[in-house]
Amino acid sequence: MATKSTPQRRNRLMLLLIALISLVPFLLAWLYFQNPQWVSGRSNYGNLIVPAQPVPYSDLLRPVGPDAAPLDALKGRWILLQVEGASGCGAPCRNSLQMTRQIRLLLNKDIVRVRRLLLTPVANRKPVEGLQEDTDLQYGGLPDELRKKLTAIVGHEPDDGTVVLIDPFANVMMWYAPDFDPHGVLRDLKHLLRYSQIG
């Protein structure tokens, strides 16, 4: 009896092994679909700037108007930067501001490491209409030389709603188009904050 059951067991194991081997390509295809960066070699969602380009804090953190509070608290932090157009903060700009606010809130304990900054060419900027309660948004001045520098770094003038990521050493390292996926930005930030001890 034992000798008859042993070949049967071996045959069943062989059939099971063949079935499992035939499932492997489907499993790999599903894994690659869920993780496209494995195929492309790209692990970040944003447009990476290589090498990162420095921007002096003196250019970046200019208060808006003579009575504005200094922006020194942003030094040494990760900054989600947006540039306001000459015609003001339009719908894409407001949408990006709301998304970066939610992204920052989702960072939980790392929320203190990330700041948000809106640069404006207007001398005495009041809070953007509809975002008066957005108390963690800082406003800064946008001199022409900084606009030109950011345009050169990004490769084109930042569109209304474009978000630029600046590291704690004031290096512009990544940017996101106005229609960015907030989950992609959040994933990038979590990855950077996990592996970085600065900021």
What attributes does this structure have?
6 strands; six-stranded mixed beta sheet; 199 residues; single chain; alpha/beta
Can you tell me about this structure?
With 199 residues, this protein is α/β, with parallel strands linked by helices. The chain has six helices and six strands, in the order ααβαβαββαββα. β5 and β6 form a beta hairpin. α4 crosses α6. The longest helix is centred in the first third of the chain and has 33 residues.
Q: What is the number of beta strands? A: 6
Element-level helix/strand string: HHEHEHEEHEEH
Query: What shape does the CA trace take?
Result: elongated
Oligomer: single chain
Compute the average pLDDT: 84
Strands of the biggest beta sheet: in what spatial order? 1-6-5-2-3-4
Beta strand %: 15-25%
Assign the structural class, choosing from mainly alpha, mainly beta, alpha/beta, alpha+beta, or little secondary structure: alpha/beta
Q: Round the Cα radius of gyration to an integer and report it.
A: 25 Å
Largest sheet: 6 strands, mixed
**End-to-end distance:** 71 Å
Alpha plus pi helix count: 6
The proportion of residues forming helix, as a percent range, comes to 40-55%
